Amino acid sequence: MRIDTMSVVVARIEDGVLLMEINNPPVNALSQPVRAGLVEALERLAADDTLRGGVIAGAGGTFIAGADIKEFGKPPAPPLLPDVLAAIEACPKPVVAALQGAALGGGLELALACDARVAQAGTVLGLPEVALGIIPGAGGTQRLPRLTGVSTALRLIGTGERLSAEAAKALGIVDEVAPDAVSAAIACRPGKRPVSKLPVPAEAADVIAKAEAAALKAGKSRPAVMEAIAAVKAAATLPFAEGLAQERDAFLNLRTSPEAAALRHMFFAEREAVRLPAALRAKPRRVETVAVIGAGTMGRGIAQSALEAGLTVILYDLNAELLATAGEALRTALAERAAAGKIAADLAGNARLVLARTWADIVPADLVIEAVFEDLAVKQEVFRQIDAHARLGAVLATNTSYLDVDVIAAATARPQDVLGLHFFSPANVMKLLEVVRGAHSAPDLAATGMEFGKHLKKLPVLCGNGFGFIGNRIYNAYRTQCEYMLEDGAWPEDIDTALETFGFAMGPFAVADLSGLDIAWRMRAAQAAMRDARKRYVPVLDHLCEQGRFGRKSGAGYYTYAEGRRSAGTDDTVRSIIEAASAARGLTRRTLAPEIIQRRSLAAMVNEAALLLAGGIAQRASDIDVVLVQGYGFPRFAGGPVYWARTQDRTTLERDLDIIAAATGFGFERGPLDLLLTESAP
Ligand code: 3HC
Asked: Does residue 616 share a domain with residue 509?
């Protein structure tokens, strides 16, 4: 019998139990009306003598994905989540949580306040708050350790790890895994047994210390991780109510922090990035079989991603030995992934991998991805072959990272079927995928590329066709500015340290050493004749390569490497090369403060971002943030270069642009800051 229908919490009686079903699409976030609806339903449960208990469930295939992240920037409106949880505990009847889909953040905290938890197979559980720069704010840090012990709670809350229903059962977080959580929860008769009354299980100090160190390392000691650790450890020493109050204080402080705001921006930017603007929406072409041309590192990574997504892969290479090695490596990698439980066992078999040495073998492919050497002539020749053999209507993609997609497409008689799919290395790991529309790409190609990316569980971002697309174009401007700073007076380690302090995973010269200097050297040599002599050019990299310093792989580049470890600073050889470059330009070297280095580097990114947006290469400003954070080590907690720019004082930002304009000299193009700072997504 249905007894009440509220807008977001529907309560009905089943078998003497009040089933409270949250209906707040898309993910049943705990927005204010949900909280109010739950409190009201719980009051009915407490007051009605005919009811033996309650079940909280979610409609639409999911339990609760957490607090409503959209509410975080606004003043909290009662009832607050802790009030709802207190009402569950205070209710004289037992309340059971029926979990399915996602039970995350505040959703899991709500479940932990219930007297029992039943999870449907396939449920994902976790307290991922640190990823949003906050900690659980409704008792998660106090209740979870009472079920799992402090060390496991440190791992789960400190890293935001997500668990399967079975794993959560093994850890004692859920009581039962069932095929149908709601009926199992209705059948369950747990009695009143609040987690808050349980003692925290005792553990050896060194086990806790190890878990703490691991969480700190994984979370790069960011403020939310430190607070999460402190709150979880407090559960073992403080009475529940005190621990709860401390947790809430820390949560409220973090919630309004700039870092949490930046992380929320990234959360929504990533969800926006995968959406096509209305004008580009179309029915994607069907992609079930993918041909990957080139069995090198990139080709293998792409092949692995596609195989893990359940697609059939034809891996083509002329070199029989390379092909056989790639086939073997792929089989091993997939078997290892299956053994580790990362992919389903049936995806590990090699039935869907075809190793091909003749072009005719690519005929069945719905999508052909070229992943050969980054050289225009080589790619054009490959595309002529693809054009001659791929079936009509197949999508032809280039994995170029800089080259002009239209020029590559012109090597075929069907440029309408050509687009860029720029994967990042290692392609089976990195989530970012730049989907590049050519001038002649058919209207359904953008949708096909984006859909393909999503199917591979990547984060596809749509780009226009222009040198380096979004990511490499900005990175190039940034690295060039860093080279100018070398000549102006900074050493590579000054620049790397300043940028690593800002939060980059690695500074630009450490990155250059890692990827190898010789490729850039060859590219520069090839472009030398076309270079305008009036443009500022820093020859340091060329001189390093002339001395056989190709980076980490040759034992020396900007830094030296002993047993794979980077030297703390640069040696005399590098310093004299840099000093000679400064002298040749007539510059008196002067020290650059870390803040100057950071601002000049970021200003170079921001300026290029403005140019990209104005040129239509990026369709929204927030896409640029997604690309830089996902693909180039820009600190997520700073929100990407555009977000960073929007938090800066405008006059200072303009002055930064003046500085990089002066440093660049001839050929500097100033981006339209107004557009970048005010653009809102279409
Ligand atoms: N609040 C508001 N909106 C949310 C949300 C949340 N907690 N979680 C997801 N959404 C929205 C997304 O923005 C998206 O909206 P859109 O369609 O308008 O873009 C929609 O729900 C679907 O999300 P996804 O595109 O991510 O869909 P998926 O199916 O791929 O993933 C999910 C679903 C696993 C639930 C994933 O969205 C997710 O991980 N969400 C975040 C969960 C989270 O971080 N929870 C903790 C919140 S903080 C908290 O609870 C504080 C507490 O301790 C007090």
From this structure: yes
